[in-house]
Amino acid sequence: MGLLNHLFDSAEKIAKRIGVNDESIIKNWKDYISTISRKKKIIDELSLDNNFQSNLQELKSLLALELVDISDEEREESELISDLEAIEHSQRVKRVQRLEQCFEYVEPKYEYVYRLLHQLHSILKSQMHLVTKLQMESRDTEKLISHLKSQLELELEILKNIEKIETFHDLFLALIKGEHIIRTMDVREKRLLKKIQTGIDKIYPKEINEGTIYNWATTVFKAIGDKIHEGVAAGIFPGYHPNIHFEFVNRPEFVDLVRESIQGLRKRKVSEQMITVFVHLFREWYNYERD
After folding, report:
1. How confident is residue 199, by pLDDT bands cut at 50, 70 and 90?
2. 40: Cβ–Cβ under 8 A, 6 or more apart, which residues?
3. Which residues contact 107 (CB under 8 A, 6 or more apart)?
4. pLDDT score, position 142
5. Is residue 141 within 8 Å of residue 134, measured between CB atoms?
6. pLDDT, tens digit, for every residue of 51-98?
7. Burial code of 216-247, b = ≥16 C-beta within 10 A, e = fewer?
8. Does the pLDDT value for residue 45 go beyond 50?
């Protein structure tokens, strides 16, 4: 199984990689990086009129590295296209750029690298699926080629961000080997996450939803500005700047705000588990998806 598959699998499976040799992990990453220029050339020039199937076969061999494995996955062509068209390409690029904006404020940096790798994992899987579908002489060949080029553009954007991280190899090693595990959600937390997601989806941008989740999210959202003013006055922030809202949402003080907000809305105490899920979802929406 590919390295990134292990990273985004269960914590138990991640931990099994502790004994893996550091040099081999970094070599796998460098092997992947070494394919980029050739992959870009093939995809940029991919056309039905020019050695189409042989180019696809070479492209598939470049993608079949130790980084990502899709051998156990089956995806219908309609499902694949639907997923790629669900969000406009420009919106996907903007999310990657926003992720870079948040780098300065996200602590620890493992979270930032984890998010970059998570997006890269998804992109590489999509590329492999697209190439496989193209080899089957799809009826939507032009559309699939277009999606392949868009996925390459996103991949290059993510790699630009990674190149700026001086300690990337150390962070990458720690994540892959399980020395620093980004805690995955258990079944109950996923149900809570889905419940909160439904609530926030209805709040933003225009639908109104009654209930505790709606009131909680609204209270937190409205309080951010006041908390920033208080932070500046108290010297927590050196001053106002364009990304101060991103900074606050990613600071520990935001977790305190979330906890205080729900305590003010209901008498019965909310578990730390639910607070963790709420913070996770809110940050993901605020940092990467709120356009």
Report:
1. low
2. 152, 156
3. 250, 251
4. 87
5. yes
6. 888 999 999 998 888 777 766 677 776 777 777 776 777 777 777 777
7. bbbbbeebbeebbeebeeeeebeeeeeebebb
8. yes
Token output for 47: 């056309």
CA dist 166 and 173 (Å) reads 13
Would you state the structure tokens that stand for residue 53, as one six-digit string?
């199937």
Pull the structure tokens for residue 33. Answer: 């990086």
Answering whether pTM is above 0.85, one says no
The tokens describing 206, both together, are: 């225009």
> Looking up tokens 């590919």, which residue turns up?
2
Q: At residue 50, what is the residue type?
A: N
